[in-house]
Design a protein that fits this description.
The protein is an alpha+beta fold. The protein folds into two domains: 120 residues, no CATH class; 84 residues, no CATH class. It contains three helices and 15 strands. Strands 3, 4, 9, 10, 11 and 12 form a six-stranded antiparallel sheet that branches. Strands 5-8-7-6 form a four-stranded antiparallel sheet, with helices on one face. It has a three-stranded antiparallel sheet with strand order 13-14-15, with no helix packed on it.
């Protein structure tokens, strides 16, 4: 049997059979007309499965909520950032500075300042007695004080304000009193916003050897170095920002650069931009 489009061919039929088939076809058509509807009949669904069409993934778009990628690995940066907001004090004269420092010494060391100031001393004499510097034209001074036993110490900072008054920041730096004590080096930088730079070596106790169960030699060696940069807003006055960097003894130095209201921290794996205020 050969198949053609839309028809099937077979052997011819006798006339009587043809008439019977024609009658049957006519009855079928009449029945189809009785049940037909004017609405189109939807085609029956087929069960032929269609292969899935592969679609390209949408291109990634920038999201406003996505965090900016740091320029360097933040874990490699040894800097820590703090916005303490510690308040300073505004005083009118060096006599007022002396009174506040005296109060702090009694609270901190349980003893008053030991100085040779006479009653009625001038501001210049008080400034020289507290800072060791007679220069009244300077913008900032540090006051290095300690107890009479040579143990505990503290550093205060005084900065001249634009209105002629003085901003006093008490205890901006203190030593590390441990088995291997360390005393900081404190400097005040006044170009731009005043900053207190505190450098201190952190030591660790090392045991060189043991003989008959007793230490043969004990020594303190430098474990790391910490540089703390304390920014001072003398007009408020407050400490808006502190950046502390702990470096290994052989690590490169980290620099802090202030530009307007942003501080950039660079070096030793750091490349950070930090707002000056919270």
């Amino acid at each position: 049997m050969r198949v053609h489009r839309g028809a099937v061919r077979s052997a011819p039929m006798p006339p009587s059979s043809s008439r019977a088939i024609a009658a049957l076809a006519a009855l079928t058509l009449l029945g189809a007309c009785k049940c037909a509807s004017s609405d189109p009949v939807p085609p029956a669904p087929t069960s032929v499965a269609t292969p899935p069409v592969a679609t390209a993934a949408p291109a990634p778009t920038a999201s406003a909520s996505a965090p900016a990628e740091p320029s360097k690995d933040a874990a490699a940066c040894p800097a820590t950032v703090e916005h303490p907001g510690t308040e300073g004090e505004i005083v009118d004269s060096w006599k007022a500075v002396h009174a506040r420092v005296q109060e702090d010494a009694i609270q901190r060391f349980a003893q008053p300042l030991l100085d040779d100031l006479k009653p009625g001393a001038s501001d210049a004499e008080i400034r020289k007695a507290l800072t060791g510097k007679p220069d009244g034209a300077a913008r900032a001074w540090s006051i290095d004080l300690g107890d009479s036993f040579g143990g505990a110490k503290v550093w205060h900072v005084v900065v001249k304000r634009s209105d002629g008054k003085l901003a006093l920041f008490l205890a901006v730096a203190e030593p590390l009193i441990t088995t291997c004590p360390s005393y900081p080096s404190v400097a005040v930088e006044t170009d731009g916003m005043p900053r207190v730079i505190v450098d201190i070596d952190q030591f660790q106790r090392r045991l060189e050897g043991v003989e008959d169960g007793d230490p043969k030699q004990l020594g303190c060696v430098i474990r790391s170095h910490e540089r703390k940069t304390i920014f001072l807003d003398v007009e408020v006055p407050e400490v808006p920002l502190v950046i502390a960097v702990e470096e290994e003894a052989d690590a490169g130095r980290v620099e802090t650069v202030l530009k307007q209201d942003e501080v950039r921290v660079v070096g030793a794996g750091c490349d950070l931009r930090v707002p000056l205020r919270r």
